[in-house]
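Budget justification aside, the reviewers requested a transparent look at the raw inputs and outputs of the sequence design task funded under Objective 1. We therefore reproduce one unedited record. The lines immediately below are the structure tokens for a 358-residue chain.
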């Protein structure tokens, strides 16, 4: 796709989404989650439905496809589509989604995955994106919507951290920062490496400049942590820095990050004044919907610690989903972020006043 077509498409997406406000009550309940094995039972949907969310955000690894055979990949999407709980969710709740490596097509894959164009169309088919949508023409599944009227607008920003991402760097060397940390990936300081690609970075700056009271920046991999050795924005420290500096540059207020991938749940906080951002950035990770971390859950351990200087409280390792409740009736909206277990019980919680995110 040549650059002129890309710019035209970007402008179309931008001006379409900036006008896309739902003629409905403001969002007060949003559920989110990640990592759902399509060939295993998914009883957690019942607990999610009981919370009556208006919107569910699928943050990636929505299935475990891991193939270059598109017929097989479609069959795996169909398996998710036939899950009884997911069928019930679709009847009551709007669903928006991005992908991670396993539903993209290969474990830890990035731009090198050879079937990314074909996989993108299957992804858009499954989530019933119209055939004439601009998203059918762009490269990558990134997307944004603003829901609600002025004063009660929630902006959903779904990043694509796979389609354009540069190769990961494996292994630590003696004396290198990060040596001995959990995980196999080391920091890649190459200034030419990327998480989002030039086109998506340009798009992100535009959407962050749109007016909204609350912004949910959805990243399939964690953005704030930079110490563990699993996949994260911290694998590309210059890109991580670029993300937070862009938030500061655009003065995008009310932003909170949602992430998945890790088969664990936790709440994190980047302190105010970091990277030119006036307020603290919170990140809530929720994973997995039906495949808890084998490292701890098999031993009966539900709460534990892992290297993460930004974490508030403990890490939760059992099956979980995320909930956001917004109370617009106060002078400044009160936002409650929760991580819930398979039965719907709250296991982690963070309350934030919107006035503190400006």
């Amino acid at each position: 796709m040549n650059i002129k077509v890309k710019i035209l498409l970007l402008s179309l997406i931008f001006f379409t989404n900036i006008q896309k406000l739902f003629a409905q009550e403001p969002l007060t309940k949003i559920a989110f989650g990640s990592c759902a094995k399509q060939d295993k039972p998914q009883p957690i949907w019942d607990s999610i439905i009981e919370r009556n969310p208006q919107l569910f955000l699928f943050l990636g690894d929505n299935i475990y496809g891991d193939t270059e055979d598109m017929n097989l990949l479609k069959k795996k999407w169909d398996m998710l589509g036939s899950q009884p709980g997911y069928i019930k969710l679709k009847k009551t709740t709007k669903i928006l989604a991005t992908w991670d490596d396993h539903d993209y097509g290969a474990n830890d894959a990035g731009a090198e995955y050879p079937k990314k164009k074909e996989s993108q169309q299957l992804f858009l088919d499954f989530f019933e994106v119209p055939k004439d949508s601009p998203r059918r023409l762009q490269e990558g599944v990134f997307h944004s919507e603003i829901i609600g009227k002025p004063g009660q607008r929630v902006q959903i920003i779904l990043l694509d951290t796979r389609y354009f991402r540069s190769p990961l760097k494996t292994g630590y060397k003696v004396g290198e920062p990060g040596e001995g940390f959990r995980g196999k990936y080391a920091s890649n300081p190459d200034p030419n490496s990327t998480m989002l690609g030039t086109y998506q970075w340009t798009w992100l700056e535009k959407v962050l400049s749109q007016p909204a009271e609350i912004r949910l920046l959805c990243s399939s991999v964690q953005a704030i942590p930079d110490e563990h050795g699993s996949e994260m924005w911290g694998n590309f420290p210059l890109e991580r820095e670029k993300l937070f500096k862009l938030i500061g540059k655009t003065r995008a207020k009310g932003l909170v990050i949602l992430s998945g991938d890790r088969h664990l749940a936790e709440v994190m906080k980047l302190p105010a004044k970091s990277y030119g951002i006036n307020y603290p950035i919170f990140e809530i990770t929720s994973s997995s919907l039906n495949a808890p971390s084998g490292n701890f859950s098999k031993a009966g351990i539900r709460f534990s610690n892992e290297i993460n200087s930004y974490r508030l409280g403990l890490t939760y390792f059992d099956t979980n989903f995320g909930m956001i409740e917004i109370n617009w009736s106060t002078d400044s909206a009160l936002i409650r972020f929760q991580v819930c277990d398979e039965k719907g019980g709250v296991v982690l919680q963070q309350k934030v006043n919107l006035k503190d995110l400006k």
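The two ends are 38 Å apart (CA to CA). DSSP finds eight helices and 16 strands in the chain. Computational costs for records of this kind are itemized in the attached budget.
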